[in-house]
Amino acid sequence: MHKLLSLMAIAAGLSAPAFAQIAVAQHDGSTDFTSRGIAGTVDGWAHNGYKVDRQGGGIGSGLAGWQTIMQDQNCVTLEIFQFAIFGGNADRTTGLPRAAAPTWGAPDSWPDVNNVLGATATFLSPTGPASPCAWIFTTNFASPVDMTTEGDVFTSTLLVSNLGWVADGSSSHISISQASAGAAAREYPITSADANTNTEMNNEFGICWTGLGPASGGAVLTPGSKRYWLNNLRYTHTSRAGVEDTSGQFGAIFGALGPQNFGMAGSYPDAANITGQPALTPRADELLWSDQHALDFAAGAGIGQVLLASSMLRDLIGGPLPLPGTGLLEINPTDPLFNIGASIPGMLAPITNLGVPTIYDPLIPLTQQPGIAPILHINQVNIYAQVVRLDLVAGTASLGSCDAHSFRL
């Protein structure tokens, strides 16, 4: 278990201090409801999976910590809390580690409670009024944790049973989208025509373990279809793969949230209305990225460049390439797409505002780009990306996280 530096809590609705970290979420930031995901009469972990090996991993700078949102239905009474990050590779039936080592990039990995990357001790909740309240907890590692050996990681929250549920007891916030025909789903891609894709999307994320898990005598894992606990990973430099709805549906329906989405909709883009939504509610997603560095560069002295590839260095040399002082290069520099971003307006952007993301929005849609467009509509294709941030004054550079847009018909 990695040493933890600190854990702090603040009332929900305020902004958590950054601690030189950036939260990486799998949702669009909306809270649809709070849930246990398990019965109020049992103890259990609520696990949220992160595909570190292909989406939002922050591998280049290491995992700095994580963030958890907890709700207490009656803040006068004390609740027992505990947070953890687990690795994957558990057998979904037994809950025990699989005999074979985890396969990088393999779908459908489940949390392994024996693979503890970090955990808090159990502790008592803060107190407040005799009404529901929510708390945001930020847990920091003493030093960043290398994620290169992990395929999936899981931000996990212990939910202790309470016979008084729902009047009292703990739960966790959830963002959810049950998309249907004719709906413009902001958070989640519409049901795919490919059954394997639906299985992947439904089982990879938002799953729960009733009891304390099979390894401790509890019940089996249960996938929570199309829902995401609002628990985030945190890094010092991260880039995010997102989408922008060019049909206007995001903006028209969701108002101030606008057309950009860096939740799971950004993981499975609908690049050309491939989901076949009706004409009244189409969704055609353009690829975009954001980049943020917690330590920042001198104002006006930095630029960022999106680097693309359709393959990873793991496929070529068995792992990432360490670049001292910069990070880990995850994507394949010999890939035909690697340098194509340099010729696409919008893929290079000046970093002029400190503390806020830089958005890389191609001025020419990638769906029209020779060399890119043909592969966007092939089933089961990933486009990987990393953003390199250059400080032109200090002469330093930093590589962001490995991100992937996953195209699934």
Give an overview of the whole structure.
- The protein is built from 4 helices and 27 strands.
- The chain has 409 residues and is mainly beta.
- It has 2 domains: 4-235, no CATH class; 239-407, no CATH class.
- Strands 1, 2, 3, 5, 10, 12, 15 and 16 form an 8-stranded antiparallel beta sheet that branches. Strands 8-7-11-4-13-14 form a 6-stranded antiparallel beta sheet, with no helix packed on it. Strands 20, 23, 25, 26 and 27 form a 5-stranded antiparallel beta sheet that branches.
- The longest helix has 10 residues, at 195-204.
- It is globular, with a radius of gyration of 21 Å.
- Mean pLDDT is 77; it is low at 1-19 and 179-183.
Helix fraction bin:
under 10%
What's the tally of helices? Answer: 4
Dominant shape = globular
Structural class: mainly beta
Mean pLDDT, nearest integer? Answer: 77
Q: How many extended strands? A: 27
Low-confidence stretches: 1-19, 179-183
Largest sheet: 8 strands, antiparallel
Query: What integer value in Å does the Rg equal?
Result: 21 Å
How many domains would you count in the coordinates? 2
Strand content: 35-45%
